[in-house]
Amino acid sequence: IIALMVFSLAFLQWNFEQLKELEVKRKYGALYLGLETRPGWRMAMLYPFIFMLSAFYTQLSSLIGRKGTLLSVNHHLQVFLVVIYVGYFRPFDIKFQSRLEFINEILVMICTYSLITFTDFVPEAHARYLCGWYLVFFVIFMIALNLAVILYKGI
Question: Could you tell me what percent of the chain has a pLDDT over 90?
């Protein structure tokens, strides 16, 4: 996984000028599909790397669980940095897609931050119960939003 992350980052950065060529698009287009490839938008090519790093971090934090408080804090920081990256660089070539990704990342950040209420920091079971319902609401909202976009846009 780490080798794929490093390879995709290096490949997209080294071949940035050739990404619009038809032969490169045909062979490697799935790696940067939908990303902005105009001159000056080199930071958009970081998105596949950041996405894979985010998924890797999420899996790592779920494997370590309670023993990894520091890893959990790092995961919260990582989600926050992804929100900043997507919000600032708008890596997609379609404005709607960048906005949808930003909204998704904000919702993931809210869900991730709400997970702290299920630790020993919140001793009251009723408070954890209520927060659980808010978490369920946000997850259902995120799924419904993305499903509505898929059905409306026909993606």
Answer: 24
| Secondary structure, 3-state, 26-92 | HHHHHHCCCECCCCCCHHHHHHHHHHHHHHHHHHHHHHHHHHCHHHHHHHHHHHHHHHHHHHHHCCE
Which residue, among 142, 133, 138, 62, has the nearest Cα to 104 in the 3D structure?
142
Q: How far apart are CA 49 and CA 122, in angstroms?
A: 35
Query: Tens of pLDDT along 39-49?
Result: 778 888 888 88
What is the widest separation between alpha-carbon atoms in the chain?
60
Per DSSP, the chain holds a count of helices (H) and strands (E) of 6, 0
Whole-structure pTM value: 0.77
Positive or negative, the Cα torsion across 26, 31, 35, 41? negative
The radius of gyration of the chain's CA atoms, rounded to the nearest angstrom, is: 18
